[in-house]
Amino acid sequence: MSLLKDTFGRKFPYMRLSITDVCNFKCGYCLPNGYEVNKSDNRKFLHLDEIKRLAKVFSKLSVSKIRLTGGEPTVRKDLPEIIKILKNESGIKKVVITTNGYHLDKKIKMLLDSGLNGINISIDSLDRDTFKKITGHDRLPEILRGIKVLQNLNFNNIKINAVLLNGVNASEKDFDSWGEFIKINKVDFRYIELMQTGNNLEYFKKYHVSSKIFKEYLNKNNWIYQTLVKDAGPSLNYINPEFKGKFGIIAPYSKDFCRSCNRLRITSRGDLRLCLFGNTGISIRHLLQKDDQLEELQDLMLGQMKFKKESHYLELGKTGITNNLSSIGG
Predict the structure, then answer these.
(1) Who's near 209: CB < 8 A, 6+ residues apart?
(2) pTM passes above 0.70
(3) Average pLDDT over residues 71-97
(4) How many domains does the chain have?
(5) Whose CA is closest to 189, among 227, 153, 155, 158?
């Protein structure tokens, strides 16, 4: 077994695999006008045979966790088959998904039966009107019903993400609202600091606020920092013995954010990306067409590790080739 390791000593047991860049929401920070077809890119999304071969290579490279992303991954009708492939044919221990929760209450049983280990749900506000303004959809009650279905099925690995937006969902009242929610629900809630991408500069200037304001709130209210585990994501997690759930912060502009990087990305059309905000990507799709190409693909991915940079340099305004988060899987 080989190990994905870069020149800075970082190891990569965690892979984010986008299976579509289509999204059915219109979030202001990502796709304010909704999904638009990129006519210059006529490649189709990765199909099942290609994903099966990818999974086998991931396993040989000691990848233990795969997160399925998009766009919105649940728009793919073969999502249950994708989960089964990753779980049953590769030996991957954890397969998790990030979703906007669209029709979650109707889809969740099917996904769990396929072997899903965890779910991250994007909910930018618990206020119904605010949620609608951010996403373009009045679906908060439906998504909360989906969480209730998960809980009734005794599924505990539930996380909620919200993008921190100045003047929208970043007040102490908003923080208290989420506190009340996780006090009685075994759910991890994390604020993600708004990131600048190639297409959202004006939005970023208007709504960006440092995640320090939420960290100060946590410190003031006696939340205790919890150390990271091996294949954890980038969240800094906080616990309170009086609460069933946890709070977390994903702070990409913080000092040394990239030092603990442990994940790589595959786009929905078969490109390997070493960084969410990198300047380059390399297509690996040509090595996903036959079973006898897998050793060559493994060698290619190992060789690419020498090109991974120490930092994303996002704090310098360098957004790389990421025009919007749906194009790479966030």
Answers:
(1) 164, 165, 166, 170, 193, 194
(2) yes
(3) 92
(4) 1
(5) 158
